[in-house]
Write a structure and sequence with these properties.
Its cofactor is Zn(2+). It comes from Nocardioides alpinus. With 393 residues, this protein is of the alpha+beta class.
Length: 393
């Protein structure tokens, strides 16, 4: 961990704006554009074997990490402003006794007044990774959001229409109970991860000119590593938890719908928020009714004489009293009648319709009286062939 003099000599002399090729008053969009352009041009994947460009890529990433962050940039600008006014001249280190004109002025005392009790390290340590000579920087990982959890709920046809509360048994990834998600053996000392330098991620190439951030494989994104790994999770920081929750399935849900329950997923780490629970709904089919969007469907068997002569046919509704369909004479097979307001519940609380489709039934066997009646019907309609049009042309 660097002292104040190392901090001054190593970081105070770096002009991050110059590295990115932008003005000090450049906008955030201009800084981002410049970084992307330089990152593409100097990325290791695009320049294999060119150590000079590799170092340039690292410098560009380092500069953008500071001036690309609004809070860090403000502190960095104040630091540079103090330096420009002579506030960080020779002998001005936090542990030294030098000062303006050798008068014993201590720069860490000045920054302690401006930045709080911790002095230089507290005021600028989050940018530069160093600390004042008085005390080390606090090593604490940032809060992390919990993982999302997937589950499936199978409900009945009627429950899907009316809505239902179901009990779900969830097994999810969570922080290790022994180390509380740190990955270290309790009582051992944490260190900033040397692989990602405490960022929690590393820059990885995609095989082209662009790069992406990936979770650091050394610390698992926790930013810190420990002298000894946790004996329970072997350094992963992860465990499993089983729990039961009550989930409300809304009325009118369709088969295959995916419902999001915010904050019902895996718990977060270091005070971070919980993830979300996504429930995929499976609806069992009904013996009589079907569904088409917000409408229910029903196949209604009718006899030949009912379709030909017309009549009234009583049909069921789901969860309500039966209704009567009035069939006009000559109703064809496959005609659909609409019964308004007897379908599924919509999101606005209104209901869809019931679509009743006529299916004319052909008897498999006939008694003597029925046969004689049908033969008489055949004779009466013999002069009206039905299939004559099939041979036209």
């Amino acid at each position: 961990m660097a002292d104040t003099d190392g901090f001054r000599n190593d970081w105070a002399t770096k002009d991050f704006y110059q590295v990115l090729g932008v003005a000090k008053d450049a906008s955030a969009a201009e800084i981002k554009t410049a970084y992307r352009k330089l990152a593409r041009a100097n990325h290791p994947d695009s320049n294999p074997g060119d150590d000079k460009l590799h170092e340039k890529f690292k410098a560009v990433a380092e500069a953008y990490d500071v001036v690309g962050d609004e809070a860090k940039r403000a502190k960095y600008d104040e630091f540079r402003s103090l330096q420009a006014r002579g506030g960080f001249g020779p002998g001005m280190g936090g542990g030294g006794g030098g000062g303006f004109g050798g008068g014993g002025f201590n720069i860490d005392d000045l920054l302690r007044e401006r930045g709080g009790a911790g002095g230089l390290g507290d005021m600028f340590g989050d940018i530069f990774g160093g600390g004042g000579g008085q005390r080390p920087r606090t090593q604490q990982a940032r809060p992390r959001r919990g993982a999302d959890v997937e589950s499936t709920a199978t409900i009945g046809f009627t429950d899907a229409l009316d809505g239902v509360t179901v009990s779900l048994r969830l097994t999810s990834d969570t922080a290790c109970a022994t180390c509380q998600g740190t990955g270290g053996k309790p009582g051992t000392r944490p260190h900033i991860c040397p692989e990602c330098e405490g960022a929690g991620f590393i820059v990885a190439g995609t095989g082209g000119a662009f790069s992406i951030n990936e979770t650091c494989p050394a610390c698992g994104g926790r930013q810190l590593v420990y002298d000894e790994a946790c004996p329970t999770c072997h350094g992963s920081g992860r465990g499993t938890s089983a729990r039961s929750i009550q989930a409300r399935i809304p009325a009118g849900v369709k088969d295959g719908a995916r419902i999001r329950l915010k904050g019902k997923g895996a718990p977060g780490e270091q005070g971070g928020p919980a993830g979300d629970l996504f429930v995929t709904v499976k609806v069992t089919p009904h013996r009589v009714f079907g569904r088409k969007g917000d409408n229910l469907t029903l196949d209604v068997p009718v006899s030949f004489d009912e379709a030909a002569l017309g009549g009234e046919v009583k049909i069921p509704t789901l969860g309500g009293a039966p209704v009567t369909l009035k069939l006009p004479a000559g109703t064809p097979n496959g005609r659909t009648f609409r019964v308004r307001g007897k379908g599924a519940t919509r999101r606005d609380g209104s209901k869809g319709d019931l679509l009743a489709t006529i299916e004319v039934q052909v008897p498999a066997t006939l008694d003597q009286t029925a046969r004689e009646a049908l033969e008489a019907y055949r004779a009466a309609t013999a002069g009206k062939p039905l299939r004559a049009g099939l041979f036209d042309g």
